[in-house]
Amino acid sequence: KTAHGKGNERTTYTARREMTPPSKSDQNTLDKNDVVDAWKPPLALEVRVRRGEVPVQEKFIRKQSAKRSTETTETVGTTPEDEEERAGGKTSGGFQKRTKKMKKAMTMKKGKRRNEGGEDNEEVQMCFQFLKNASCAKGETCLFSHDADYYRLKMKKKDLPGWCPFGSEKCPFGLACRFSGSHEDGFAPDDEDEAIALFEAPVANPRDDTNDVTNDVKYALARRTFDFSRADGILKAMGLRTSDEVRGGGDNSTNNRKDNDGKNQQQQKYKRMKTSENEKRVIAENADEYSDDDDDGNNNNNNKVTSEPAFDKEDENKTASVDQLLKPKEKKTIDFKNKLYLAPLTTVGNLPFRRLCKTLGADITCGEMALATSLLKGDAREWALVRRHKSEDIFGVQICGGHSDSLGRCVQALDDTIECDFIDINMGCPIDLICNKGAGSMLLEKPKRMEELVRSSNLICSVPLTFKTRMGYKDTSRVAHTFVPRIKEWGASALTLHGRTRAQRYSREADWEYIRKVADASSVPIIGNGDIYTYHDYVENVVKNQDSIATCMIARGALVKPWIFTEIKEQRNWDISSHERFEILKDFARFGLEHWGSDERGVEQTRRFLLEWMSFTYRYTPVGILETIDGQLPNVSMTQRPPKFVGRDDMETMLASDDASVWCDLCEKLLGKAPEGWKFTPKHKSNAYKNANSESEGGMAFEMEANG
């Protein structure tokens, strides 16, 4: 069945029919692209466990399996016109670099649309400012259409049921809002054929997040007019080259050539504005309780509270001695002990997902890995990764870089413009794109470079600095234990250690015994990482070694079952129902619309990231269908492959489906119909299961995961 309760030619198998061998009538209903395997009775429990399968009760194992063609499973919603783009065109999971010829053709097509706009033209381009504000400053000179009636009747998709999360008076999307009907008529009831209502009332504080860096900061970074005198001064005092010297600018760099008055005026434009009106009032009332190291600021006078005087004024920076520059500053400390840490996860670890995990028990969150060089270029997409929701009480930012000049400047830019509790440097990312640039896991082969990065970054930032790495670069060389006794001298506040080497990537099981040995020799708290999937894994690897290991970072376990944080805190295996799991998907959809917006773009952005997450959640095997071994429930491992099974109800069966079209059906129940011709290709392969040879299949192609 589909999510709408109607039969579908491609998914005609109900739970009852999947429990019996295929009949001739069933085989006649199969699509020509489907391949039916010959039915075989399930193997004995001991054999299945030995082969690396999750021990599911025999009555839930599918007796019939239908395999879609790869083309149908991985790409959903394609049309014949999309066949040429499938090899490398833009989808929600990939992007083909546009050539000059393609850009020229797109520009000509856009101009043609504008010039030929009219009531009978289906490709009329609406003015976005008009849709938002019901007016446009350009008036009749605007090149885009202001025909609101035409937009409502022929262009806009059907409104979603329920209230607008932003309310009728404060909605920033105006007519473009997919809940615009509620602006005038109030609450819209559920539509069984479209979607269910996500919001029963307007949200009190939608988009209640911080670290929204202004365009002035991004422009200054892109034009290289941002004042990096503080970072450059520390790098020079340490005997390291600055970015200007690397580019050959020396002392005649752009910043040094600028007139001091002009530079100061420009600097005042993008000075950080970190505190809200309430925070400024509290600071004013309790000024004596705040030290120079507190990470707060003032919007009115644009001064940094946390920076030392030698770093704020150019004349004092010039006269500061080397000893003053290299003197470690007192910083606030973070107690990682027994706090559940959600790993920074590329693509899926976005703000709505982190907010969801906070509601389920996560204590520490960290933004997705951002490239230092991209942040220094003012890339808006990269700066969006440092956004923080108000519920993230302990929040960190993870950056990646392999050179002290760029990383040092990036740390200063973050320290000056956003609010975070710690900065984490990724020195464990295994992908070639990062390692070939001397960053990520490649730093394990260059311990001196690693020390330079940590020392310089720690002196520049005013918040605690941590870094994340692996056991070693090669399987034959585990080196983490050789430098951990010295990292406290470097200035690091904590170290996260992934129990695999770079060569292993995400294959094989994490070596927690080695993590324990490193923790015993470490001078700073050690945060273990790898294969924490159940409460029993947490007890076995963290609780029993709590004298040496501070806590653990949870990555893939949170993607497959984000309620793992609840299980650990309540010390139980949660047999979560399909209804409760669907409610979690609804929460993500709500958070996504609040964060990305309630217009068409925001809805589709939410749909894309929800589907990316569901490419992991289908791997979950419900506790209630597991086979007991010796009278006890088995501890399911991250590397065990769940067999094809039928759930206890239709919704549970759909949530366990590996068919992307089923995921899309579930999304349509939350976000309405997908646009015509829309397609989805999962960005990550989420299978890293152990086979009979005790090695993982697929290598967990989490290719841009900041999980290191």
Give an overview of the whole structure:
- With 708 residues, the protein is an alpha/beta fold.
- The protein is built from 33 helices and 13 strands.
- Strands 4, 5, 6, 8, 9, 10, 11, 12 and 13 form a 9-stranded parallel sheet that branches. A two-stranded antiparallel ribbon has the order 1-2. A two-stranded antiparallel sheet has the order 3-7.
- Helix 26 (512-521) links the parallel strand 11 and strand 12.
- Mean pLDDT is 76; it is low at 1-33, 65-75, 78-96, 113-121, 249-320 and 687-707.
Cα end-to-end separation: 39 Å
- Classification by helices and strands: alpha/beta
Mean pLDDT: 76
How many distinct helices?
33
Q: Which value, in Å, is the CA radius of gyration?
A: 27 Å
Catalogue the unreliable spans. 1-33, 65-75, 78-96, 113-121, 249-320, 687-707
**Share of residues in strands:** 5-15%
Q: Largest sheet at a glance?
A: 9 strands, parallel
Sum up the overall morphology in one term: globular
List how many beta strands DSSP finds: 13
Percent helix among the residues? 25-40%
How is this structure best summarized?
The chain has 708 residues and is an alpha/beta fold.
Topology of this structure?
Blueprint: H1 15-18, H2 24-28, E1 35-36, H3 45-50, E2 66-67, H4 70-74, H5 100-115, H6 128-133, H7 148-155, H8 181-185, E3 209-210, H9 215-222, H10 229-237, H11 243-246, H12 254-257, H13 260-269, H14 277-285, H15 309-312, H16 314-319, H17 322-325, E4 341-342, H18 351-359, E5 365-366, E6 370-371, H19 372-376, H20 380-383, E7 388-389, E8 395-400, H21 404-417, E9 422-427, H22 432-435, H23 447-460, E10 465-470, H24 480-483, H25 487-490, E11 494-498, H26 512-521, E12 526-529, H27 535-541, E13 549-554, H28 556-560, H29 564-570, H30 578-596, H31 600-617, H32 650-655, H33 660-671
Parallel strand pairs: 4-13, 5-8, 6-8, 8-9, 9-10, 10-11, 11-12, 12-13
Antiparallel strand pairs: 1-2, 3-7
Helix pairs in contact: 10-21, 18-30, 21-23, 30-31, 31-33
